[in-house]
């Protein structure tokens, strides 16, 4: 912490110094930059100043999974990011040497203004900038911290402007000056406050083929005109209020590669239209809309498709057999949270590319198809919340890269551990969630021995993530902007709760040194709580409630100093609750339903008072049991607020609402590191 603080202070010193330097010009320097353009830039500068309050982490939302990652010295979020930059406008130098200013080498005209991620604050009148710098070709003020004002009271001729990026610039109007810009190739107005219908002339921006990149995501746009530029390759319209059927003009864009129209109010797909773009599309995201109807078969013929997200809609019916063919060419498939029924199609082909398959939250039945064992690159498999039956798919243990296996809330049965399986035994797994099924037998000691990934997670920059839906715990970085989605699992979870496991908790579990969440609740486990649990020093949530555990709570648990949630209620534990600084911070609910327990925080805080009579009396009492998820409530709310600050500062009210609403749900959370608190403190 000390080190990064120091670097940070130095960094602040530098920007403050640079931006406050005198504006007197050095008469000896060669002026390539025309005087009137330099004066215009000085005027621009007068309104702005540097700040240390910026985006210190980015947040990604992917299909309802909120991902937040605290990366020092980065700015931006879902819609773009980059390293924070120190802007040095030493006004004794020629203005062409100022940071972010780009000039034509022969004329000296200012042609580029790039203040992206500049850690600035203040107000900038774009009309003045455009009219005083007529040779501008590219403007990027995204995430600079500047609030851009556009008066829409004049038309400026900037005949060369081809690249305009104003993401997250507190923009509330769609700029009129775009009307004249037939040369525009890149337009990014994402994460602003543009609302309602876009004017119909907007469709002419970039002429008939110049515009290739259009990002209007994360505004409040309700409808769009038909864009004409058939050169479009990147279309980002996600997180708006676009309603009705899928906009058919999109299908005229025969070169379209990346399309994200997720998180809108689209109610219908138009498969016939999609057929026109079946050979160019690389990424198709229609998730989080209100689309009904069957799986569009056209998708099976999309020869270049790598990323498909149809999650969180109302697609219904069977997943067609041809799906088994696209699993061999796609890298990421998310059909989660729909109403698909029937069985999971068999995987044809070699399935060598598939990184992630998410079919959670449907009504799928039958067994987990063992043709999935061909998917040797699979990192993430989520089949949770379906109606799958059959036994535990042991052969998944041989997938060498599998990081997350989520089978929660199905009807799977039988024992889970293989008798003597050689092979990988889930050695890369971070998340093992088979909760809420009908599994029986002993806990899988062999797997615990082989969870190598959980034994030693890279202690590099930690990522925090929560999810809004209460479903589960992994995250995928959005493939927006043509980036490869990265499944980034640093949150280690073993959840075997709500099954019928019996026997003792094996000591080897203490070897899972990097485990963060352990949930074995609601089984028939007996014996003592292993002393070895105290070795899992990073553990943040431990739930052993609703079992038949007996004996004393091991003293070693006082070593779990990161614990945010502990629930040992509804067992047969006895004796005094160990007194450690962390254990003392929990409420009584964590221990209720163990008539033999005593000591704070229990109401029965004096162990000597514990007479057998009282124990018996309590044994018959109806205990007001608290759902384990609710125990985390305070913490989750806190996390929501912390994230909320930043979202307010970058203007993402929709997310803020989503998180605020999720406050009462199961939000696994982590203790904020002090360093992070300093980043957010002054944003309150
Ligand atoms: C600004 O530039 C001048 C001329 O290059 C130089 O002498 C001076 O030290 C610079 N000032 C700062 C604060 O960097
Ligand atoms: C610089 O200006 C000259 C003269 O106007 C022009 O021909 C040239 O294309 C410009 N170069 C750039 C990179 O804009
Ligand atoms: C101007 O010249 C420099 C150095 O020769 C070069 O790196 C830069 O790309 C040129 N800029 C433009 C816009 O041509
Ligand atoms: C500076 O800010 C004022 C309002 O505070 C505004 O009227 C003016 O146009 C701004 N100037 C520039 C160059 O952005
Ligand atoms: C954003 O713009 C609104 C007006 O549209 C203004 O009231 C508000 O102060 C601006 N926010 C910032 C941070 O400049
Ligand atoms: C595309 O831009 C070029 C210059 O970059 C321009 O000459 C042309 O007219 C534009 N195309 C259309 C269809 O407007
Ligand atoms: C796209 O669809 C058309 C018309 O249905 C078909 O002829 C063509 O083969 C398809 N392209 C691919 C790559 O499947
Ligand atoms: C899927 O692939 C198999 C084997 O290559 C082929 O027989 C079948 O016709 C394909 N199905 C579809 C719907 O494309
Ligand atoms: C799947 O759901 C549809 C209605 O959406 C129903 O007609 C069909 O019988 C169901 N199929 C199976 C196998 O359950
Ligand atoms: C599993 O589900 C399938 C399809 O619903 C059904 O035919 C089969 O009987 C079920 N098997 C068991 C063991 O419940
Ligand atoms: C807690 O951890 C320390 C250091 O790892 C160890 O020496 C001590 O025995 C542990 N305490 C208990 C009660 O296990
Ligand atoms: C930001 O700068 C202000 C004064 O310039 C300082 O008081 C504050 O502590 C700084 N914030 C952080 C997070 O360093």
UniProtKB/TrEMBL annotation:
Gene Ontology cellular component terms for the protein in this record: plasma membrane
Subcellular location(s) of the protein: Cell membrane
Keywords: Cell membrane, Glycoprotein, Leucine-rich repeat, Membrane, Repeat, Signal, Transmembrane, Transmembrane helix
BP terms from Gene Ontology: defense response; response to other organism
Membrane topology designation: Single-pass type I membrane protein
InterPro entries per record: Leu-rich_rpt, Leu-rich_rpt_typical-subtyp, LRR_dom_sf, LRR_N_plant-typ, RLP23-like
Predominant location category: membrane
Transmembrane segments: none
Signal sequence residues: 1-20
Domain Leucine-rich repeat-containing N-terminal plant-type residue range list: 35-49, 86-104
Family (UniProt): Belongs to the RLP family.
Protein's recorded name: Leucine-rich repeat-containing N-terminal plant-type domain-containing protein
Organism: Deinandra increscens subsp. villosa
């Amino acid at each position: 912490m000390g080190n990064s603080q120091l670097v940070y202070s130095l960094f602040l010193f530098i920007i403050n110094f640079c931006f406050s330097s005198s504006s007197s010009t050095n008469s000896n320097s060669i002026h390539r930059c025309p005087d009137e353009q330099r004066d215009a830039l000085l005027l621009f500068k007068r309104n702005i100043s540097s700040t240390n309050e910026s985006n210190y982490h980015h947040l990604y939302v992917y299909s309802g999974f909120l991902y937040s990652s605290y990366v020092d010295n980065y700015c931006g979020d879902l819609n773009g990011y980059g390293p924070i930059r120190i802007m040095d406008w030493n006004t004794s130098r020629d203005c062409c040497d100022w940071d972010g200013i780009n000039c034509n080498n022969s004329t000296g005209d200012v042609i580029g203004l790039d203040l992206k991620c500049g850690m600035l604050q203040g107000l900038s009148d774009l009309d003045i900038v455009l009219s005083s710098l007529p040779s501008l070709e590219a403007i990027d003020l995204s995430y600079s911290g500047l609030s851009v004002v556009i008066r829409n009271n004049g038309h400026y001729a900037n005949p060369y402007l081809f690249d305009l990026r104003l993401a997250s610039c507190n923009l509330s109007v769609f700029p009129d000056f775009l009307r004249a810009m037939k040369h525009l190739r890149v337009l990014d107005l994402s994460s602003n406050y543009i609302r309602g219908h876009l004017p119909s002339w907007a469709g002419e921006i970039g002429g008939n083929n110049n515009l290739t990149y259009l990002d209007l995501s994360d505004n409040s746009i309700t409808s769009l005109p038909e864009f004409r530029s058939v050169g479009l390759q990147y279309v980002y319209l996600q997180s708006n209020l676009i309603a009705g059927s899928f906009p058919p003009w999109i299908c005229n864009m025969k070169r379209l590669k990346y399309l994200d129209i997720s998180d809108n109010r689209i109610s219908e797909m138009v498969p016939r239209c999609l057929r026109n773009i079946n050979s160019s599309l690389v990424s198709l995201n229609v998730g989080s809309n209100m689309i009904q109807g069957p799986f569009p078969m056209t998708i099976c013929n999309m020869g270049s498709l790598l990323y498909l997200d149809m999650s969180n809609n109302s697609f219904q019916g069977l997943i067609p057999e041809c799906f088994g063919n696209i699993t061999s060419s796609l890298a990421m498939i998310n059909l989660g949270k729909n109403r698909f029924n029937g069985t999971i199609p068999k995987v044809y082909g070699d399935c060598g590319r598939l990184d992630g398959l998410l079919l959670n939250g449907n009504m799928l039945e039958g067994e987990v198809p063992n043709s999935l064992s061909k998917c040797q690159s699979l990192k993430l498999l989520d089949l949770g919340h379906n109606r799958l039956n059959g036994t535990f798919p042991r052969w998944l243990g041989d997938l060498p890269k599998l990081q997350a296996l989520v089978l929660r809330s199905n009807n799977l049965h039988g024992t889970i551990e293989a008798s003597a399986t050689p092979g990988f035994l889930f050695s890369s797994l971070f998340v093992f969630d088979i909760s809420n099924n009908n599994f029986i037998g002993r806990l899988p000691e062999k797997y615990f021995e082989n969870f190598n990934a959980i034994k030693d997670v890279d202690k590099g920059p930690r990522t925090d993530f929560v999810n809004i839906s209460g479903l589960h715990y992994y995250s995928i970085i959005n493939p927006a902007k043509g980036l490869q989605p990265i499944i980034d699992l640093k949150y280690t979870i073993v959840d075997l709760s709500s099954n019928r496991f019996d026997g003792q908790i094996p000591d080897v579990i203490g070897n899972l040194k990097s485990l963060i969440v352990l949930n074995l609740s609601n089984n028939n486990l007996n014996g003592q709580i292993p002393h070895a649990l105290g070795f899992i020093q990073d553990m943040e949530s431990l739930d052993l409630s609703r079992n038949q555990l007996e004996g004393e709570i091991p003293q070693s648990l006082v070593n779990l100093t990161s614990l945010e949630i502990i629930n040992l209620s509804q067992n047969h534990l006895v004796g005094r609750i160990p007194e450690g600084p962390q254990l003392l911070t929990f409420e009584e609910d964590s221990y209720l339903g163990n008539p033999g327990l005593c000591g704070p925080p229990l109401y029965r805080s004096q162990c000597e008072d514990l007479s057998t009579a009282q124990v018996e009396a309590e044994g018959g009492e109806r205990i007001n049991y608290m759902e384990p998820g609710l125990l985390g409530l305070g913490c989750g709310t806190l996390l929501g607020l912390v994230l909320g600050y930043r979202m307010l500062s970058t203007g993402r009210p929709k997310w803020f609402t989503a998180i605020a609403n999720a406050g009462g749900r199961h939000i696994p959370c982590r203790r904020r590191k002090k360093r992070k608190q300093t980043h957010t403190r002054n944003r309150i």
